[in-house]
Amino acid sequence: MSKVITLRLSEEEYKLIHKKADIEFRPISNYITSVVLRNIEESSNVDAVEMAQINNDPILQKKLKAGYKDAKSMKGKYVGLPCPRAK
Q1: Residue 69 confidence (pLDDT) above 80
Q2: Total-model pTM
Q3: CB 17 within 8 A of CB 25
C-alpha cells in the first residue's frame, strides 16, 4: 500500500528536482523515489576495490569465518537490531 509523505524543499531544490524529473519524463514523486532507492541500493553493496581488500586480508578473513561459525551455531550475544530468529 502506498504511503504519502510531506517533503519540504527550498525553491531552488524544487526547481532542480523538477528539471531532472522532466528530463527523465517522470513525475517528481517517482523521480525522488527512484533516486532514493538507487542510492540505498548503491550504498548497501560493496564495490570491487573494497571486496578485493576484504578478500586479500587474511586476518579479516579469519575473523569473518569465526564470526560466521559463531553466528551459525547461535553462539554469542546478538547486538543491534532485533534478532531475526528471536521470537
Answers
A1: yes
A2: 0.53
A3: no
